[in-house]
Amino acid sequence: LDKHDISLIKLLLFIEFIIRKRFGIDGGGCKTLEETGESLGASKIGVLLTEAKALHKLRTPKSARGLQSFL
């Protein structure tokens, strides 16, 4: 893996962490923007924007098909 691949993996893990914490998917209960941001060393606004972009992508028909098992 080169440095670009590693950067992309870190970005994806960052996004996954936010979604898991905000919606309690990890079993620890839903966390606030502030709590999630503190865990990452990010601002509430940064968490909010990242969450909004991720949710927008998850709402696409292609992504929605993959999430049917969660419903």
Protein architecture, described:
The chain is an all-alpha fold and 71 residues long. The protein has helices at residues 3-23, 33-40, 44-58, 61-66. The mean pLDDT is 90.
Secondary-structure map:
Blueprint: H1 3-23, H2 33-40, H3 44-58, H4 61-66
Helix pairs in contact: 1-2, 1-3, 2-3
Task: Write a concise keyword list for the protein shown above.
71 residues, globular, mainly alpha
Shape: globular
SS element count, helices: 4
Q: What is the helix fraction of residues, given as a range?
A: over 70%
Radius of gyration: 13 Å
Main pleated sheet: none
**N-C termini distance:** 35 Å
Fraction of residues in β-strands: under 5%
Question: Which structural class do the helices and strands define?
Answer: mainly alpha
**Low-confidence blocks of residues:** none
Order of helices and strands: HHHH
Explain briefly what this protein structure is.
With 71 residues, this protein is mostly helical. The chain has 4 helices and no strands. α1 packs antiparallel against α2 (33-40).
